User: Fold this.
Amino acid sequence: MNTYLIFALGGAGLCGIGLFGFILHDDLLRRLIAFNLLGSGTFLILVGLAQSGRGGVDAVPQALVLTGIVVAVAATALTLMLIRRWTQLSQQSHLTEEDE
Amino acid sequence: MESFLPTLLLTSLQGLLLISGGVLFVVGSIGLLRFPDTCSRVHALTKADNLGLGLIVLGLILGTNSLGVALKLLLIWLLVMFASTLSGHLVAWYACYHPAEKPLPQEPSDD
Amino acid sequence: MIWVYSVTLVLLLGSLLLGLIRIWRGPRLADRLLGAQLLGTTGVAVLLILAEWQLQPAARDTALVLAMLAMMLAVALVAGRHKSRSS
Amino acid sequence: MIDLLLVCGLWSLALTTLLTPNAFRALVFFILLGLLLTLVWIRLDAPDIALAEAALGTGITGVLLLDTLKQQPQHALLCVHRTRIFWAVFSGLSLTLALSWALLQAPAMPIALDQTLTAQLDASGVSHPITAVLLNFRAYDTLLEIGVLLLALFAGQGLHERQHPLEQLSGAQLHNPFLRASLALWLPGMLLLATYLLWAGAHQPGGAFQAGAVLAAAFILMHLCGLALDAQVSQHLLRIGVLVGFVLFLVVASSSMLAGQTLLTYPSAWAGELILLIELALTFSIGLILFSLFTLNHQMRKESA
Assistant:
C-alpha cells in the first residue's frame, strides 16, 4: 500500500461521490460541480495507478492529466455559459423532465 | 566537536520558530472562529496568520544553505502579507459599505 | 528534524479544521471568503514545509502561485457586488 | 498517515460540497477542495499538475463560479424521491467498489514508457520530461488540446448572440483607491510570475499551461478592476492573439513535412528554440482563450440584468 495507490483509491472514491451527486441533484450548477469531482477523481486514478505500478514518477500520464485539467476548466466555463443561457430562457435552474 | 553546539542551537531554534509559527496559525484560527463580526475577524486573518507564516519562513530559512531558496521564501512571505492586506481590506470594505447585504434569512441556512 | 515538521503540520491541520468550521457557519459570504483566505495562507505554509520535507523544490513555486492568486476571490466578491449595484 | 488524512479530507469536502443546502457554502468548500488537491498532487510527486491546479482552481474556476452564483436564483436542496436517492447512493457506491477492485487487481504494466522517455530525453531539446512529452513526443495531443480550447471559445461566442458596444464592455469601475494602487504592483508581478513559469518549463516544473493560467488570471484581475482588456485593445488584435498559438504550432508542425519528414518532427538542431517559441505563443493563446471565456460569461450576466 504505497502513497500512489492510496491516492488512486481516493480518486476512485471521488469518482463515486461525483456520480452520486450527479444523479442526486436537479440543480444544474450542482451537477456541474459533481461532474468536476468526477473529473478530478479520474485524474487522480490515472496518475496514481500509473505511478504505483511503476513505483516512481511517470511523466506521460502527468502530461496527459495536465492537458486534461486545462480542457476541464474550459469545458466548465462553456457549461456555465450554457447554464446561464438556459436560466435566462426558461427561468429555471434545472432541466425540465417531460417524461415524469 | 566545535560545530556540534552551533548545530544543536540552530536546530532547536529552527524547531522553536516552526512550532511557534504553527501555534500562531491555530491562534489566528481561533480568533477567526470566536470574534463576533466580519470586521473584527479580519484582524485574526491578517495579523496572527501572517506572523505565523513569517516565523515558519524564518525557521525554514535557517535550515537551508542556498541563498536563492532563502530569497524565494522571503518573497513568498512578502507576497502573502501584501495579498492578505489587500484581501482583508476588500472584505472589510465590502462588509462595512454594504451592511444592507446583511439579512441572514435570505440565505438558506441550516444552522 | 522530521518530528518538528510533523508537529508543525499537525498544528496547521488543526488551524485548517478551525477555519473549516468558520466557513461552515458563515453567516455571510464575506465570512466564508475570509475562511478561504485563511486556508490559503495555511496552504502556503503547508506547501513550504512539504517542499522541505519531500525535497520537492517545485512546491515552493506552487506556494508562490497560490500566494499571488489567493486575493482574486476577494476582488471578485467586491467587483461583482459593485457592478450589480451600479447596473 | 498524512495521505490517509488527505484522502479523508478530500472525500468529506466533496460530500459536503454536494450535500450542503447553502450554495455559497458549497462554492467555498469546492474551492477548498481545489486547494487540497494541490497538496495531493505535491504528495503524488506531480508538481506540474499542482501548479496548474493552484493557478486554475483559485484564479479561474473559483472566480467563474463565484461570478455565476451571485446571479443564479438560490434554492435549497430539492426534495428528491426516495428511489432517486437510493439509485444515487447505489451507483456511486458500486462505481467506487468496481474502480477500487480494478485498481487492486491491476496487473503490472508491460510497457515501460518512462524508460523510453529517459533514453530519448536528450533528443527533445528540453530537459524537463513533462515539457518534452507535451511539446515533442506527444505534441499531437497538445495541438488537439489547443484546438479543443478554441472550439469551446467559438461555441461560447455562438451562444451569446448580441454584440456589445465597447462602452458597455468597459463596465463599472471599482472605486477603491487601495485596490487600484496595488494593481500597479500586482499585475507586473503576475506577468513576471507567468514569464518565470514559462522559462522554468524547459528544465523544471512549469511551462505553457501553468503560465497561460496565470496570464489568464492576470487578465481577469484587470477586468474585475474595471480595466477591460477588450476595451483597450482592438477586437482584431484579440482574435489574432487567440489564434496565434494554434496557427504557429500548426505551421511549425507541418513545415517539417516540406523537408520530407513526418508531421510534428522538429529539426533536432533547434528543437529547444522551436519549443520555446511554440510555448510562448501557446501561453498567450491559452491566457486569452480562458480570459475570453470568462468575459463571455461576464457579459451574459449583463444581458440578463
